[in-house]
Design a protein that fits this description.
Radius of gyration: 30 Å
Number of helices: 25
Domain Xylulose 5-phosphate/Fructose 6-phosphate phosphoketolase N-terminal: 17-381
Domain Xylulose 5-phosphate/Fructose 6-phosphate phosphoketolase C-terminal: 604-802
GO molecular function: fructose-6-phosphate phosphoketolase activity; magnesium ion binding; phosphoketolase activity
Strand order of the largest sheet: 12-9-13-14-16-15
Mean pLDDT: 93
CATH architecture of the largest domain: 3-Layer(aba) Sandwich
Shape: elongated
Low-confidence stretches: 1-5, 807-824
Enzyme class: lyase
CATH topology of the largest domain: Rossmann fold
Family: Belongs to the XFP family.
């Protein structure tokens, strides 16, 4: 399963690395360090050939030096390994502020100039390269999407290993050295991601080499792992399933060539162990190996001035960011900077035209083997459309039985569809979930695959659907699931992960970072090919948390996504399918999508189905639609009130209210919204429905009662510039709830049908319908007392069926007998 464009991997060397090669690696390291410092400090005179003055230093010094020299050292040696072994490799830079090292590496392997032709390989190009870094109109300071070879920006710390392990899944030829900064290692997400080695199989997956970069300090404090004994450090990582190899350098006067020799020998030994793991994995021996890792201990700011103004700099927190913050302002600091740059002997590294001398890069890989050009680091180059089944094969038949028929678990139906997507795409699609795949009704996947698990096994009576290989990954960490999926997508594959709605907030910032990656790609980086959409099934949602209670009720993830929806980059989609057939239509669209995040809010409890698949697809195409069968007004202008919904339970309750109103002779136009962002003002979203279409749905001036899944303010925020927005009244979650019955859950948030119907009458004519409003209001109290007295809901709530439905067919057609596990 080797990608033919990226070599034949996993082969050992027959001889030690030559001295000539190590001399070239040292030149690479010096050149990369010089390029890194130049990016932080210099705006002109990049090689100091003209009289070098303080005017050549940037006015604003932005960037981080502390972690960069260690990264440059590692990149030099990894480039050597890639070239010698012809090894398919993606590099993950965990330290968030190692950006200068990443761009320097890409400049040296040639890919930077290929993707950015204005950065020429001469002194003029070098000046542009330096000036653009953290500069107005330039590039960010991280290993950002603008940098060839990057799939992990590191803007938020904690996800280096999650991305790395996601990248190697179903990617057996891929080697991913993942550098973990010792500050990053203190984050909760990173701490749990060491367990990822139990969820991969060296036969079918690639290999991650964690490299813990211990340079001792964060911004202003020492790091925990750098201040514990070597014995404790080794025991910790061995307990995590790794064989740690420690490498210490830079703390004495050892020559650079001696350091390079020691590290090259260590890296070869580690890679030999990896090759043996890969070879053994091809046999029948499925014993989980202890994977090697490297503890790389160097001074912070390695090779910078040891002291500045009499204060220790190299090897201290003072080297974290810009060690010479006054290099432009004071002559003394400028002279220190000049000496620091000269210490790398740039004349030996760059020729008379300012180009990098060939001997500096002679040892490096070529073509697609280059870190900056590996197709796995531009996953859209490898992306293939999924072979998708026809969603009509999974359709709930409302054509025969009527709108509002049945009691189907929507996510279970999506699970049947996704099962067959897995079957048709066994190496390009995965399901991820934090111990909730079955609970969220996606268990049909286990008919065609297993949960991948490489830790200990017990009896098959207890360990169901678990195997060394499988396309389902579960670990009780939302961070891990998100990170795995991102790594999987960024290297050219597809997938979905499901989570409980209240706990999707755990990955708010991760979604934010991925959206920013996509925004930058869409706006400014045409050479990055589109990757598959990131699909999040948000279920076990707020309206049916009557069994878990208040702690499990929070629909606010919508608002995180809305923050990414106002710039016409179209990197987020927010879907509220009303039923199983609509969820099928949304699932099909999501599995075809690219360069976006698809948040799909869908319940897992039995509910009616309202539309056929074809009706659902037609509505999804528009984003919102009038439901003719639920409307008795000719159009919006003929209606007394427009009732709109977004979300499955709000739709259920609003339809029941609609039925009550129509029986009173109230003219209703019923509108369902599935694609929430289609409501957004067209000035903010050029893919939203037009004002004319908005008016057709919601009228020019009639009252609109909107029953919404999440917080009401989200709708007001979306429609603020739309016609008739002042006449919208939105009911949504009001931060009320407990462990209670389904009716009481909607009641306490004013989402029940009697409250909605009364609210609609108030909008139409509160005085005229005061008696009916009072009657329904009183019934709400009576129905609650019924639940208190009996422990279950009033039949007036549980027995409602939309009049079109075949009442004789009311049963759960999707095997929904609940178990304790289902109700978690």
């Amino acid at each position: 399963m080797t990608n033919p464009v990226i070599g034949t991997p996993w082969k050992k060397l027959d001889a030690p690395v030559s001295e000539e090669t190590l001399e070239a690696v040292d030149k690479y390291w010096r050149a990369a360090n010089y390029l890194s410092i130049g990016q932080i400090y210099l705006r002109s005179n990049p090689l100091m050939r003209e009289p070098f003055t303080r005017e050549d230093v940037k006015h604003r010094l932005v960037g981080h030096w502390g972690t960069t020299p260690g990264l440059n050292f590692l990149l030099g040696h990894l480039n050597r390994l890639i070239a010698d072994h012809q090894q398919n490799t993606v590099f993950i830079m965990g330290p968030g502020h190692g950006g200068p090292a990443g761009t320097s590496q890409s400049y040296l392997d040639g890919t930077y100039s290929e993707y950015f032709p204005n950065i020429t390989k001469d002194e003029a190009g070098l000046q542009k390269f330096f000036r653009q870094f953290s500069y107005p109109g330039g590039i960010p300071s991280h290993f950002a999407p603008e940098t060839p070879g990057s799939i992990h920006e590191g803007g938020e710390l904690g996800y280096a290993l999650s991305h790395a392990y996601g990248a190697v899944m179903n990617n057996p030829s891929l080697f991913v050295p993942a550098v973990v900064g010792d500050g990053e290692a203190e984050t909760g997400a990173l701490a749990t991601s060491w367990q990822s080695n139990k969820l991969v199989n060296p036969r079918t997956d690639g290999i991650v080499l964690p490299i813990l970069h211990l340079n001792g300090y964060k911004i202003a404090n020492p790091t925990i792992l750098s201040r514990i004994s070597d014995e404790e450090l080794h025991e910790f990582f061995h307990g995590m399933g790794y064989e740690p190899h420690e490498f210490v350098a830079g703390f004495d006067d050892e020559s650079h060539m001696s350091i390079h020799r020691r590290f090259a020998d260590l890296l070869e030994s580690v890679f030999d162990d990896i090759c043996e793991i890969k070879a053994l994995a091809q046999t029948d021996d499925m014993t989980r190996p202890f994977y090697p890792m490297i503890i790389f201990r160097t001074p912070k700011g390695w090779t910078c001035p040891k002291f500045i103004d009499g204060k220790k700099t190299e090897g201290s927190w003072r080297a974290h960011q810009v060690p010479l913050a006054s290099a432009r302002d004071t002559e003394a600091h400028f002279q220190v900077l000049k000496g620091w740059l000269e210490s790398y002997k740039p004349a030996e590294l760059f020729d008379d035209k300012g180009a990098v001398r060939p001997e500096v890069t002679s040892f490096m890989p070529k073509g697609d083997l280059r870190i900056g050009e590996n197709p796995n680091a531009n996953g859209g180059r490898l992306l293939k459309p999924l072979d998708l089944p026809d969603i009509h094969d999974y359709e709930i038949d409302v054509k025969s039985h009527g709108h509002g028929w049945g009691a189907t678990e929507a996510t279970r139906v999506l699970g049947y569809y996704t099962r067959d997507v897995l079957a048709k795409n066994p190496t390009d699609f995965r399901i991820f979930g934090p111990d909730e795949t079955a609970s969220n009704r996606l268990a049909a996947a286990y008919e065609v695959t297993n949960k991948q698990w490489d830790a200990e096994y017990l009896s098959e009576l207890t360990d169901e659907h678990m195997a060394h290989t499988g396309q389902v990954i579960e670990q009780l960490s939302e961070n891990q699931m998100e990170g795995f999926l991102e790594g999987y997508l960024l290297t050219g594959r597809h997938g979905i992960w499901s989570t409980y709605e209240s706990f999707v907030h755990v990955i708010d910032s991760m979604i934010n970072q991925h959206a920013k990656w996509l925004e930058a790609t869409v706006r400014e980086i045409p050479w990055r090919k589109p990757i598959a959409g990131l699909n999040v099934l948000v279920t076990s949602h707020v309206w049916r948390q009557d069994h878990n209670g208040f702690s499990h009720q929070d629909p606010g993830f919508v608002d995180i996504l809305l923050n990414k929806s106002f710039n016409n980059d179209h990197v987020v989609n927010i879907y509220f399918p009303s039923d199983a057939n609509m969820l099928l239509a949304v699932g099909e669209r999501a599995y075809k999508s690219t360069n976006c995040i698809n948040a799909i809010f869908a319940g897992k409890q039995p509910a009616a189905t309202y539309q056929s698949v074809d009706e659902a697809k037609a509505e999804l195409e528009k984003g919102a639609a009038r439901w003719d069968w639920a409307s008795n007004a000719k159009d919006a202008e003929d209606a007394d009130v427009v009732i709109a919904t977004a979300g499955d339970i709000p739709t259920q309750e609003a339809l029941a209210a609609d039925d009550m109103l129509q029986k009173m002779g109230i003219k209703v136009q019923f509108v369902n919204v599935v694609d929430l962002l289609k409501l957004q003002d067209v000035e903010e979203n050029d893919q939203a429905i037009s004002d004319e279409e908005f008016t057709e749905l919601f009228s020019k001036d009639k009252p609109v009662l909107f029953a919404f899944h999440a917080y009401p303010g989200s709708i007001y925020r979306l429609i603020h510039g739309r016609p008739n927005h002042d006449n919208f009244t939105v009911h949504g979650y009001k931060e009320q709830g407990s462990t209670t019955t389904p009716f009481d859950m909607v009641r306490v948030n004013d989402m029940d049908r009697w409250c909605l119907a009364a609210s609609a009458l108030e909008l139409v004519d509160a005085k005229k319908y005061a008696g009916q409003i009072d009657e329904w209001t009183k019934f709400r109290t009576e129905a609650f007392q019924f639940a208190v007295d009996n422990g279950y809901d009033h039949p007036a709530y549980t027995d409602f069926v939309w009049p079109d439905a075949n009442r004789a067919g009311q049963k759960n057609i999707s095997a929904t007998a609940a178990t304790a596990g289902d109700n978690e």
